[in-house]
Amino acid sequence: MAQSTAVSRRNFLKQGLALGAAGAAAPVMAMTPVDKGIQWDETFEVVVVGSGLAGTCAAISAIENGVKSLVMLEKLPMLGGTSAISGLNFAVVNSHLQKQQGIEDSAELFANDMSKAGGYQNHYELTLKMAETTTRALPWAIERGAQFHDKLKFLGGHSVPRTLYPIGGGGNGILRPLRRYFVETLNGQIRRRTKFEKIYRDDDGRVVGIQVRENYHFDRTLANDDRENTSGVYKNYRITKGLVMASGGYSRDVEFRSAEFPNIREYIPAKTAIGATSGALKSMIAAGAHPIHMSLMRFSFKIPTEDMKWGTMVDPKTGKRFVNEQNNRQTLAEAICYMMDKNGGVFPRNIYDQQGIDSFHDKQRLGLALKEGTIVKYDTLEALCDAEGINLTGLKATLAEYNANIKAGTDPLFGKNVAELNGVTVEQAPFYAIKTQPGFTYTQGGVRINTAAQVIDINTQKPIPGFYACGEATGGMFGRIRLTSCSCPDAFSFGIIAGEEVAKA
Predict the structure, then answer these.
(1) What's the predicted TM-score (pTM) here?
(2) Domains in the chain, ordered, with CATH?
(3) What is the pLDDT of residues 226-255, one digit of tens each?
């Protein structure tokens, strides 16, 4: 498969921004002068960057649609990226389970649910295409080895029960059989410790190759691995059909994410793969891809957001409330991040009494939080404040005012819908405290694509020939808030589409 090919002056490749702008400060392979062209080390029809669910689906789909020469690249020694450690609940329209149960659903209803959750900031044509494609993506996945439980979840924000969950351990329960199918049935090739560096486009704007670093060793101790890591050997891969970027998000890149969202500093933990940095995204931007929704990020909590309302959330330094506890997860997380930034990383606490704890709707997660020590029980308010570092005087004043307002049926400070609380206050011992630490789980921003998974050029606003992307590497699908159980259908749907489209190139 290996070959060395020189490119003529007319077809000399456009390099975009310098490699340093793509996040690598390692000794750079000196590019061959224009009149001699680039020396290719290997040639492939298709290269897929990323071994998570989107990349795996794209690679399978491409080979099944006629691609003969394909390689999947992963910069880490382990495969799967964030997909491997995610639950990967799979929201599907018109699944066999919905049909068995007589549940009426449609792609339009699913897309509308996602649009509403995302504040209508999503690119609707992408959302609808994804929703439509889930109907065929589910049997596609099952035919290739993925297995799902025979029950549907009815999750928050969805109009009907439509979510399946995998058998065999979350994301790996899906990825293992698909990867086995890719390697054993399709003879697919995967290269670990191979870091994508930059994209080459010819004079006509087509993507014709990439630069990588083989034998790369990711170093999580570095402040910025993309910029500081010097390991690996530079190679150039020629691509004759197309490049599929399924490189995931950038939630582990504190420097990059805090530039987009200043309050998301190092004390907000990312619950994603350690390799989720911004290097690949920067290289796509350097090659002309249009980045969108870069400041939109998804958060999660140890307990359901819906059960935050039974308590009162306070700033430990003052003991005062600062937000309506009934808000959606994004609004709550943003307010918490702001308060933490203001207080140097001190997490707010949500305070409950027994009546509030008994009102939780998700008893399973409540029990887990109590067992893990996420929620701690105290016999007195004084003991709680002493252990949690909360201003006792301030908290007593806050609770007295809060409880009086609940009984009066109003919340003049933050507009809480008191009627939903059914009279639940925070005044009878024992008391409970939960550290309201948001986890950073997903980045809605990425490169812009069309419904054929083609990456859009920021200058021409047209598809870049030979350039495709899918999964969390893309932006526009979700808008301000990513509806729960929707990253999996996105990866499945646009992974399959990207593979089909690149095979046609």
Answers:
(1) 0.84
(2) 19-26+38-83+174-296+444-504 (3.50.50.60), 93-168 (no CATH), 302-437 (3.90.700.10)
(3) 999 999 999 999 999 999 999 999 999 989
